[in-house]
Amino acid sequence: MVVCNKALSNAIGKEPKDTYGKTDIEYDWSAELVKGNPERGIVGWEKDDLAALSGRTIKVKEEPTDFDNGIRYYDTSKFPLRDENNPIIGLVGIGRDVSERRNAQRLLEDSRKKLRNLAQTLIAAREEERKSVATRIHDVQRLSTELRPWMLEDLGLAAALKWLCEDFCRRTGLLCKAQIDLRVSGHTGAVATVIYRITQELLTNVARHAKARRVFVELRKLGRNLRPIVRDDGLGITTQQAMATESIGLIGIREQLQDLQGEFSITGARGGGTTARVRIPLRKEAPSESLTREKQLETERES
Description:
Elements: H1 6-12, H2 31-35, H3 45-53, E1 58-67, E2 70-82, E3 88-97, H4 99-136, H5 141-147, H6 150-154, H7 157-172, E4 175-180, H8 189-210, E5 214-222, E6 225-232, H9 239-242, H10 248-258, E7 263-269, E8 273-281, H11 289-302
Parallel strand pairs: 4-5
Antiparallel strand pairs: 1-2, 2-3, 5-6, 6-8, 7-8
């Protein structure tokens, strides 16, 4: 070490003059950090130093540094130091302490994970509640149909979505048109259930928030993908609303699509309505376990 600024000297707990002429190991840093440890995946600073001394510029993200008060993380750059005749006489290392940023990112990731887990729990609880109510209430045909439309299994996805739109019109007074690709008419099982639930959630959002007059529900089959689309002519969702982490409905939609490798996007223009798009890749699938169970319950009721 021939030059040391105040930030580094404070970090290692020494005066700048006390660092001159010493190697990294003489600062009481572990040999593992300096030399590396392949068994633990630690490259070591020395390898970067040698690369910089050979004429290269080295950049490392979140490099760990072990100080007396714990490990700190630095974004570092190392490059060769040359004299006036251009030969390399040393190296320059610049480090920016990113420990707080790294900790904040980890906290944010933890929060997002907890939020996803919460959303999954809410979805599971809501589905269990629907099945429980549908099982116990036998004489309210409309309620059981809303909770788990038998036509979804008996007649397929196209008929169920058309019924959903017609029922939406009756309940809200809004115009709701459905345009369904005939090639998807017979779809049942897990994919059909997810598409139905997502469409149901999006129509609920329109009724609650959009202040729309017309809603259009489309379902297309493009190649090996199903593409549901729900559009309205309402206020138009903002970018902030679309990305809001407290929107359980939108979080729930994304969570339902994860296991199917599906994608969801929602955009809006102020006064120009909102468009929600879904893409679900088709794959060979077994009938939905929940639908199979409900069919069994229906058989038991009939017997």
